[in-house]
Amino acid sequence: MDLRIEKTERGIKNAFIELRSRKPLEKITVKELCESARINKSTFYAHYKDTIDLWESFQRDFLNQLIHFTNKHQEELLVNKIDLLLNKTMDILKNDFETYNVLANQDFSFYFYHDIKRVILESLIKEYSVSEEVQRSLNIYIGGFIMLLREWLENPNFESMEEYTKTLSRLIHQGIII
Q1: Most CB atoms closer than 10 Å: which of 90, 104, 130, 160?
Q2: Going by C-beta distance under 8 Å and a sequence separation of 6 or more, which residues neighbour residue 75?
Q3: 64-101 residue pLDDT tens
Q4: Distance between CA 48 and CA 158 in Å, rounded?
Q5: CB of 45 closer than 8 Å to CB of 8
Q6: Which of 174, 172, 154 is nearest to 86 (CA)?
Q7: How buried is 32 (Cβ within 10 angstroms: 0-12 exposed, 13-18 middle, 19+ buried)?
């Protein structure tokens, strides 16, 4: 991607996060976003349809990173792939915790969490031929992880997510989950 485009999009997103930390999505106007990002409206509209599209772009970016990682890393064992995916999910969120924390604490879409779960489950089911029983177990396991993830994003004082990830990993490696 062109560095100028990347810089413009990063500026728009940074301005958006700063505004979102102070007010709800529906109160943010394109005009004030453009003023904060120091761009004109035509530049904004060259990148996004509206503030909702911009907000959804954070979700798309996250999911695209996860999908790219999933397609790039193959594992022989299902349990190792699960560990890899859970840890990558954590890494993506930790690398930009402030952004995801602001989004989660404002009104991050329930669908975002559902989409994370869907992407992880679909990649596991596609890569490994698993029985319906294992699919149900994965659904419960990944669902629990996503709920803990949501709690962690919404409450930075919540217990260490790394500790939960280790516990979840231990459960799956001991065969308690799958």
Answers
A1: 104
A2: 81, 84
A3: 898 898 888 888 888 888 888 888 888 888 888 888 88
A4: 34
A5: no
A6: 172
A7: middle
CA distance 93 to 140: 21
| Token pair for 18 | 């700063």
Secondary structure (3-state) at 95 = helix
Contact in structure between 19 and 33 (CB atoms under 8 Å): yes
DSSP 8-class letter at 159:
P
Q: What percent of the chain has pLDDT over 90?
A: 24
Chain centroid to Cα 32, Å, comes to 26
Is residue 110 predicted with pLDDT exceeding 80?
Answer: no
Amino acid present at 137: S
Question: From its phi and psi, is residue 3 left (phi > 0), alpha (psi between -120 and 50) or beta?
Answer: alpha
Is the Cα dihedral 119, 85, 100, 42 positive or negative?
Answer: negative
The Cα–Cα gap between 153 and 97 comes to 8
Handedness of CA 98, 103, 105, 111 (dihedral sign): negative
